[in-house]
Amino acid sequence: MEMQLAAVLATLALGGALVVLFFGKWWQPLADGDKRVKELDDAVEALLQLRADLLKQLDGAPEPEQPRAWLRRVQDAQDEVASIKARHDAGQLYVVRLLHYFLTTGPVAGLAEKQLKVVRAIQEQGAALLEAALATPQAPPPLLLQPEELELPPETGSTRAYLNEALRFLGDCDSALGVWGAGGVGKTTVLKQVRDVCGRVAPFFDHVLLLAASRDCTVANLQKEVVAVLGLRDAPTEQAQAAGILSFLRDKSFLLLLDSVWERLDLERVGIPQPLGVVAGRVRKVVVASRSEAVCEDMGCRKKMKMECMNEDDAWSLFEANAGEEAISGNAQISTLARQVAAECNGLPLFLATVGRALSNKRTAEEWCHALDKLKKPQLTSTAPGQDKSAHALVKLCFDNLESDTVRECLLTCALWPEDYNISKDELVQCWIGLGLLPKYDDVDESLRFGHTVVSILESARLLEQGDNHRYNMCPSDTHVRLHDVVRDAALQLAPGKWLVRAGVGLREPPREEALWRDAERVSLMHNAIEEAPAKAGSALSDARPVSLMLQCNRALPRRMLQAIQHLTSLTYLDLEDTGILDAFPMEVCCLVNLEFLNLSRNRILSLPMELSNLSQLKYLHLRDNYYIQITVPPGLISRLAKLQVLDLFTASIVSVADDYVAPVIDDLESSGARMPWLGIWMDNTGDAQRLARLAPGVCARSIHLRKLEGARTLELLSAQHAAELGGVQEGLRELAVYSSDIEEIVADAHAPRLEVVKFGFLARLRVMEWSHGAASSLREVAIGACHALTHMTWVQHLPCLESLNLSGCNGMTRLVGGAAEGGSEAEEVVTFPRLRLLTLLGLPRLEDIRGGGGECAFPELRRLQVRGCSRLRRIPMRPVTGGQGRVRVEGDKHWWNGLQWASDDVKACFVPVLL
C-alpha cells in the first residue's frame, strides 16, 4: 500500500513539474509584460512631476523654445504610454492575453521596454532644463505699490530712501540683501518698516520673519525665534527642529529679516529652505542687517546697501524735533551750542533722538555748555573690544540726564537680559521690585504703577524701544520693551560694581574662570541651556559672592548647579523660574539666609519644606504657574516668614495632588496678624474666601483659583450682594480662575472686582455668563474651557481692553457674539474688538459663525487666529486689517482652511494660513 502511494505521489510531482515547465514557458512573456508596464508607468509619473516642477519654475516668465519642445515630447510620450497600457489591459483572462500576445505585431513587454528608454531620455533632458531654470534668477511677482507711492508716518522720513531701496529688492531677481552700517544708524528701524509695509506691497510672501541674531547667536537660539514667530512646536534636538522648520517653509514664500548679525550663520542648519530666490514659483528672500560689510558678503548678499549717517541738515532737524524747537530757537547762544551737541552725535539717528530728548528740559546756556563738555571729554576710559567710546559718551550723557537714581538703576538692569531680547514689562517691574530699586509702598498696585511709570519714562527718553510679543505673532506690542544693543553695551560699562552677564549665549555650563566670578555682584546666566555644572564646591562658584543670580529659562538645570548655589550665602535675589525642578523642593535654597526674592515659578514642585523658614529675610516668594495646582504648605511656615510681602502660589493648572493645603496658610495669616500685600492662592470653598476677606486690607488677594465649589449655583465673589462678607477680597482681586464646579450662572455686576484676567473651565452646568460694562472695563484676557452648556459669549464684545480670548471644548457654543436684532439693523452694524490680538477657537464642534445673523466684526489689532476642531465654522466675518499693521496669522488644518467661504479675495488676502 505504501509503495503504491509513493508511486502515485511521484507521478503527480512529475506531472506537476511538466505542467509548470510547459505553461511557465508561455507565462513568462506575460509576467515580463506586467513588470515592464509597471516600470514604464512609474517612470511616466516621475516625468509628469518633473514637468510640474518646471512649469512652476517658469510660471510668469516667457517660455523659451527649448522647454516648449521638451514639453511637446512629454505629451507625445504620455500618449504612447497610454496606448501601450491600453493594449496591456485589453484582456485579463490568461487565454485571452496569451492569444493577444501571439497575434499582435509586437509583444507588449518589448514595446514597454523600448518606450521606457525614451521616457528616461526625456527625463534626463528635463532634469537639465529644471537645473538651468533654478540657476536662472527670476523676479518675483510685481509689487502692488511702488515704494515711492506708499503713505508712511512722518518719522520714517530719515530712512525713506533706504526703505525704498529695500522694498525695490522685494521685486527684483536678487535673493539676499545686505544692509550694513554703524551701530545706531537705523538698520533695525528699516527692517521693522519693511516688515510693517510688505503686507501691502508684497502680498506674495506667506510669512515675514523679523529675527534678532545678536552677538554669540547659536543655531538653537535662532531656531527658537523662528518657532516663536511661526507658532511651531519645539523639537528635542537641533536636527529635529531644523527638519520641522524646513518641512513647514519648503512650499511657502517667505521674507527673512535678520537683524544684528555679527558673524556668518548657517541658515540651512537652522532649517531655512535652500536655494533662496524664486524657486518653483515660491519667493524666498533674506535681508541681513550687520555692522560689517564682510558679514553681509559671508551671508551670500550679492546686493548690499550701506546706511550712511545723516547729513547735517537732516541730523539737525531730527535733533531739534526731539530737543524742542521753541526752547532752542528762543536763545541764539543755546541754538549755537545745540548745533554743536548735535554734531557730536555723528549723524546717528539713535543718538540724535535720545540726546535731543535728554536735553529737552535744559533752558540755560550753562546747562547746554556743560552737556557739550561732557561729550567732548568722555568719562568712559575703557570699552569692550569693538565698541565705540563716543557712542558710550552719548549714552552716558542721556543716562546722567535721567530724572533720578531710581530710573538710572532700573535702566541698567535691563542689560541683564539677552541682547535684543523682548522683555515683558511685567517681568521687568517684578525684577525691579525684587531688587529693591523701587520705593516701598504698602499698596502693591501702587508699586506696580510706579514701575510701569519708570518704563514709560525710559521709553520717552528713547533708551527703551517698543518690543515684540511672540504671543501676538511677534508684532510690536505695548506689553514688551527692548534695549538697543549700543545702549546695552554702554549700560554694562556704566553698571556700579562688577557684573557677570552671559545671558542668551547658548551656554552649556556656567563660566569656569574664577576671575569672572570674583567680586561679581550681579550674575545673569538666564536663557541658556546649562545642563552641566562643577562637580565639586571648590570650583569658581565657591568663592563667588554675588548679590543677585538670574538663572531662569535654563530648562534642564542640573542638580550640581543647585548644590553649588547653596554656598552663595550673600544672595538676596535668586530667579530659578522654568529650570526643570521636578517634585522635590530644592533644599539647597534654604541655606541662603539673606535671600529676599525667590522665584521658582513654572516648575513641578509638590510641597514647601519647613526649612524654608530659615530665610528670615524673604520678602517675595513666587511659585506661579506651577505644574501642580496645590503646593502643600506646612502649618506655621508662613507665620515664621515675618517679612514676607508677596506669596504667589496661583496657577490655572488642573493637576491636583493635595486635598486641602490652603487652611495652614490662612491659619498662619490669622494667628500672626501678618500683612500680605500680594497673595495668589487656591481655594475650594467660599468659606476660605470669607476668612481672607476678614483679613483685609492687611492681606490682599490678587489672584484666586476656586475649585470644586459644590452646591454653589452662582459665583458670589462677583456680586455686590455679598460685599459684606467678601468685600475684602473683591477690592484687590485682579485674576480669577474657576474650575470643576457646579456653578450655573456667572453674573458680574457693576460692583464686581476690577478683574484683568478670568479663566473658567469644566463648568458643565454653566448656562449664563454676563459681565456689566463697569466691571468689564479692565478685562485683558478671557479663557473659557469645557463649559458645554454655554451657547454664546455676547458680552465679550463690550470689553474695550480685551487682548486675548481663548474658547476651547465648549460643545454647545454656536456663535461667539450675537447677530441681528429684530428689524435687522444690528446686522448692518460692525461689532468692533478694538484691542483683541489673539483669538483662539479650539474644539467647538457646533460653532457655526463668529457672529450670528451674518453680521461683520472688526478686529483692527488682531494678529493671530487659532482654529481647530470647528468643522461647522465656514466663514470668518472679519474686515481687513488697515493701516499697514501686518496680516493675521491663521493656524488651522488644511481641510478647514480650503473650505472657508470669503466675502472677497481682498478679505482672504489679509490672512496668512499656517496649516498644521
What does this structure look like?
The chain has 916 residues and is of the alpha/beta class. It folds into six domains: 23-135; 147-306, Rossmann fold (3-Layer(aba) Sandwich); 310-401; 406-484; 684-775, no CATH class; 780-916. It has a 17-stranded parallel beta sheet. Strands 1, 2, 3, 4, 5 and 6 form a six-stranded mixed beta sheet that branches. It has a three-stranded antiparallel beta sheet with strand order 7-9-8. A hairpin with a 5-residue loop joins strand 8 and strand 9. Helix 2 (65-88) runs antiparallel to helix 4, helix 13 runs parallel beside helix 15 and helix 24 (662-672) runs parallel beside helix 25. The longest helix has 56 residues, at 2-57.
**Poorly predicted regions:** 17-27, 91-99, 101-106, 821-827
Mean pLDDT: 83
- What's the CATH H-level homologous superfamily of the largest domain? P-loop containing nucleotide triphosphate hydrolases
Helix % is 25-40%
- Specify the number of helices: 30
What is the total tally of β strands?
34
- How many domains make up the coordinates? 6
CATH C-level of the largest domain: Alpha Beta
